[in-house]
Design a protein that fits this description.
Elements (H helix, E strand, L loop, with lengths): L2 E6 L8 H16 L4 E6 H4 L6 H12 L9 H8 L2 E5 L9 H10 L6 E3 L5 E3 L5 E7 L15 H12 L3 E7 L9 H18 L1
Parallel strand pairs: 1-2, 1-3, 3-6, 6-7
Antiparallel strand pairs: 4-5
Helix pairs in contact: 1-7
Length: 201
């Protein structure tokens, strides 16, 4: 049975356009994979603690003692064990909300999600074959003149390489805050892409 881990970083909750798109994808994925299981991590409800000095000191102490089974590392173990991963996060300030960055810092643990070989080269330790970012953007950041400003998908793609996840994909609905655009048509088109992607994810 495939385990899909859904990381929900949609800070507007059920009003979120990104979350609506993600729910559509997950519904279709479940239909296409009836034996699969979806586990949701709602970051706004779970609220992982940032790496404040005292938190980092505790984490370092546990890691140095080899206590990688401590609850401090539960999120990292969960991420490393997933077969498929979906991250839903709106495009904020050229990347994504801070709560997702906090989560990424909590799961990036040496010898759980990644490690190093004898030559000091990075080795990914995650089981997932694919990670999908689902996002919505007010502007259009897929154009040649604006793509360089997009930092959210690019950061996650780089982290996938570090984690050993071979396939990174991004489902984005763009131009939603441009008053010249038909928002409903943009979202409808993105929903169609979500359906198609879910079939083979």
């Amino acid at each position: 049975m495939e385990q899909l881990l859904f990381i929900n970083a949609c800070v507007r909750g059920e009003r979120s356009r990104t979350l609506k798109l993600a729910r559509r994808f997950l519904d279709r994925w479940q239909q296409a994979h009836p034996d699969g299981a979806v586990t949701e991590v709602d970051l706004c409800k779970d609220r992982p603690v940032p790496q404040y000095p005292e938190v980092l000191a505790e984490r370092d102490e546990l890691w140095n003692a080899g206590k990688l089974d401590d609850p401090m590392f539960d999120l990292a173990h969960q991420f490393a064990a997933a077969d498929r991963i979906v991250v839903a996060a709106p495009f904020w300030d050229l990347s994504f909300p801070a709560i997702l960055k906090i989560y990424l810092e909590r799961i990036s643990v040496t010898n759980i999600t990644f490690g190093y070989d004898e030559q000091g080269n990075n080795v990914g330790l995650c089981k997932a074959g694919k990670l999908l970012l689902i996002t919505t953007r007010g502007g259009n950041f897929s154009l040649p003149e604006t793509a360089w400003m997009e930092m959210g998908a690019r950061q996650l793609e780089a982290l996938c390489a570090m984690y050993g996840i071979p396939s990174f994909q991004c489902l984005a609905a763009e131009g939603l805050d441009d008053i010249r655009n038909d928002k409903e048509a943009i979202l409808a088109e993105a929903m169609g892409r979500a359906d198609a992607m879910a079939e083979v994810f």
